[in-house]
Amino acid sequence: KLRELAISLGAKVTFFGQLDKNEVNKILLRSKIYLNLSDHEGLSFSLLEAMSSGLPSIVSNIQGNTNVITNGLDGIVIDVKDKNQLINAINTLIESQSTRLEYGLAAKSKVKSEYLQEIQIGKVVDLLTIGIKK
Q: For 84-120, b where at least 16 C-beta lie within 10 A, e where not — what string?
């Protein structure tokens, strides 16, 4: 479905399969938009990687994605079943470089302030010590 939609929008979409970290970083740096349109997700490391690269994201409105992306601030949240929402979101980001940059900078800032490894480890340690104190 995604390939057909991309072709109808005149976009180039490539499905790479599994890549090593260096290859992923090169692709992210060449990209303009990141899409995560899954129907089930935990905390998506690929989404965090895209955000840390300064990419604006379009994500499906499922809990793992909406815990990270704030619609209209650092990305766009859509109902993945609504093709028009997806088309509008893609067009919004393709047509407006300033919106892409704004969302991308906000995404990068969010990852640095909330999702760095040290911060996440600290949160886990806090959770574990709360259980121990009880």
A: ebbeebbebbeeeeeebeebbebbbebbeeebeeeee
Side chain identity, residue 35: L
- Looking at residue 18, its pLDDT comes to 87
> From residue 132, how far is each of 63, 118, 119, 120, 121 by CA, in Å?
28, 21, 20, 19, 16
Residues 6+ apart with CB under 8 A from 56: 33, 34, 74, 75, 76, 93, 99, 100, 102, 103, 104, 107
| pLDDT, tens digit (0-9, with 9 covering 90-100), for 14-31 | 777 888 989 988 999 999
Closest Cα to residue 67, out of 36, 103, 42? 42
Q: Write out the two tokens for 117.
A: 């490894």
How far CA 42 is from CA of 12, 56, 62, 68, in Å, comes to 28, 19, 9, 10
pTM, two decimal places = 0.79
d(CA 124, CA 120): 6
